[in-house]
């Protein structure tokens, strides 16, 4: 569930994915009901799709082929 803001300043190539990952973790049952930290919930496997998208976005910043294909993420 990407969130787009028109008045939001640019925060880098993967800022949107990073923000959505943080929001997903903070809204998960692991944090709200069990009282664990977002880092623990991320290690346990919550928000896997956004975690993978964030990883791919960060990896594409280092990939030389991304000059032609463009960065992944939003």
Automatic annotation (TrEMBL):
Entry keywords, A to Z: Disulfide bond
PROSITE patterns given in the database record: CHCH
GO terms, biological process: leukocyte differentiation; mitochondrial respiratory chain complex IV assembly; multicellular organism growth; spleen development; thymus development
Record-level GO cellular component terms: mitochondrion
Pfam family, one: Pet191_N
InterPro entries, alphabetized: Cyt_c_oxidase_assmbl_Pet191 (IPR018793)
Summary of the function given for this chain in its UniProt record: Involved in an early step of the mitochondrial complex IV assembly process.
Family: Belongs to the PET191 family.
Name of the molecule in the record: Cytochrome c oxidase assembly factor 5
Protein source organism: Propithecus coquereli (Coquerel's sifaka)
Gene that this polypeptide is encoded by: COA5
């Amino acid at each position: 569930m990407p969130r787009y803001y028109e008045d939001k300043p640019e925060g880098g190539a993967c800022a949107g994915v990073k923000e959505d990952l943080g929001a997903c973790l903070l809204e998960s049952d692991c944090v709200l009901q069990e009282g664990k930290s977002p880092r623990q919930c991320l290690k346990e496997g919550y928000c896997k799709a956004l975690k993978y998208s964030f990883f791919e976005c960060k990896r594409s910043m280092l990939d030389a082929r991304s000059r032609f294909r463009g960065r992944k993420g939003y």
